[in-house]
Specification:
Distance between the termini: 32 Å
Number of domains: 1
Number of strands: 0
Number of helices: 5
Structural class: mainly alpha
Radius of gyration: 18 Å
Length: about 150
Amino acid sequence: MKPENQHRTSTLVAVVFDLLNPIPFGFFVAGLIFDIIYTKSADLLWIKSAAWLICIGLFFGVVPRLINLVRVWFPRAKPSTARDRAAFCLYLLAVVAAMVNALVHSRDAYAAVPQGVWLSILTVGLLICSNVLVTLKQANDDNKVPA
């Protein structure tokens, strides 16, 4: 395999990761908003829609997490940092919380509250912390002066 092909493949993987990575966050935030609306209105539409949003967020979160797994734990070009591993672990905990949240939301609508709301808050909070770590790493990398 030529080095140019390896570079193209990693570029393609980076593009796929960058395109798909923010999608689950939007679905989980929307699920949290729908959970909060359900607690105020008690309309079944909101809790069932939140369940769908959480499941769709999990569906779209699989490919970026697999790519990130390889990037963080099996790096080829540059070694991963402790911040990369911490961000990966936080995101992994968020996905686990979202899976449990999907199971909670599969129950009767009245049984999904308050656990579903707290799990949605936990999921979104962990994702925010993970994204902050990644952003701080990118900001530090951008501020480094090449020798």
